[in-house]
Amino acid sequence: MMPSPRKEKELRTLQKDRPGGADEQARLEELKARIERFKATRGSRRKGEAGAARDAGAALNTAVRLLAELAAGIAFGLFIGYWLDRWAGTRPLFIVLFLLIGLAAAVRNIMRGEMKTRGSEKDAETERAPLHSHGGRKGETCGNPPNDV
Q1: Distances, alpha carbon 10 to alpha carbons 16, 96, 109, 116, 135, in Å
Q2: What is the per-residue pLDDT for 16?
Q3: Taking the model in full, what pTM does it have?
């Protein structure tokens, strides 16, 4: 017995609306693809924000370290100068002298710390540089000109 056209239409509608139907599967696949695209764009945006925050944190760390070096050098120079002036009875002489020595020591420590930082960055670049024909890294001197000219 063949169903009437009206019944047939109702059956098709029910099959469409029933979970697991062909249309439902296609909609689910499309939804999954949209979710994955959203996650990918959100993740890349977050990585960019994290990189910017990491750079800002590194800059703040450097600024605080430089300030601490400067303050410690000046404070130590003032402390030693004050006690030497008190011991010798020459009020401003040793304070001024050791203040300048403390300032020079602080500047020297800052410069040395920055050179270490820049040196480690340069070493990292050298390690990533391509090898020359002699087996050394770019920037190393061996007397032979590089082949990648």
Answers
A1: 10, 100, 85, 79, 78
A2: 58
A3: 0.47
